[in-house]
Automatic annotation (TrEMBL):
Cofactor section: heme
Transmembrane segments: 6-23
Keywords recorded for this protein, A-Z: Iron, Membrane, Metal-binding, Oxidoreductase, Transmembrane, Transmembrane helix
Protein name: C-22 sterol desaturase
Family matches, as Gene3D superfamilies: Cytochrome P450
Catalytic activity field: 5-dehydroepisterol + NADPH + O2 + H(+) = ergosta-5,7,22,24(28)-tetraen-3beta-ol + NADP(+) + 2 H2O
Pathway in which the depicted protein is active: Plant hormone biosynthesis; Hormone biosynthesis
Any single biological process term in GO: sterol metabolic process
An example Gene Ontology molecular-function term: monooxygenase activity
InterPro entries documented for this protein: Cyt_P450 (IPR001128), Cyt_P450_sf (IPR036396)
Family recorded in the similarity comment: Belongs to the cytochrome P450 family.
Length: 196
């Protein structure tokens, strides 16, 4: 009697899991349509495991799928959100022109609101967005950008010299550059935005 109940319960649980898996596929496939992307997605997580394990490879695959699609788009599912990867710059401009609360909102990154804050310019709409763009526009004039380029060049060359010296001191052996690149980018941003 107990054995039959366990089999029945196991069958019921298996059917419920299969139904949940199927139900999770429906909104993804409805939105995805003919776009390239994974044929099946893990419920709730989607492709997040692939993205976290090897982020560079994940985005390379997305870019390759978008390129092969002929329209510059690829689709995926991350944490229950449907995402579209856009490779074509002209299409990006057209899409960004239509970002609004009643159409769709820009994500930028699955954790974008936590990383950059909900008040970031990419999450603003309408007059608020236009006003912020108007206020920061002077930072992107030719004169301002040429000033930034000179500061960036100075910082980058200093880092390159340090890396070459460090490599020579180690007998010209290869060295990992992830942390040194991060440090260089942080120093470059600080020197440009705040000062040395």
């Amino acid at each position: 009697m107990v054995d039959v109940d366990l089999r029945t319960a196991a069958a019921f649980v298996a059917a419920a899991v299969a139904l949940y898996f199927l139900v999770e596929q429906l909104p993804y496939h409805r939105k995805k349509g003919a776009l390239p992307g994974p044929p099946l997605v893990v419920p709730f997580l989607g492709s997040v495991v692939h993205m976290v394990r090897d982020p560079a490879r994940y985005w390379e695959v997305m870019a390759a799928q978008a390129k092969e699609s002929g329209i510059g788009l690829a689709a995926d599912w991350l944490f229950g959100y449907f995402i579209v990867f856009i490779r074509d710059s002209e299409l990006s401009h057209r899409v960004f022109a239509n970002v609004r609360p009643d159409a769709f909102q820009l994500t930028g990154h699955p954790f974008g609101r936590k990383l950059w804050g909900a008040d970031n310019i990419i999450y603003k709409f309408g007059d608020e967005h236009k006003e912020l763009r108007r206020r920061i526009a002077p930072n992107f004039t030719s004169r301002a950008l040429s000033t930034y380029a000179a500061i960036q060049q100075r910082v980058i060359l200093a880092h390159l010299r340090r890396w070459l010296d460090r490599s020579a001191a180690a007998g010209n052996k290869s060295m990992p550059l992830l942390v040194p690149f991060r440090d260089m980018n942080l120093e470059t941003s600080q020197a440009v935005m705040v000062g040395p």
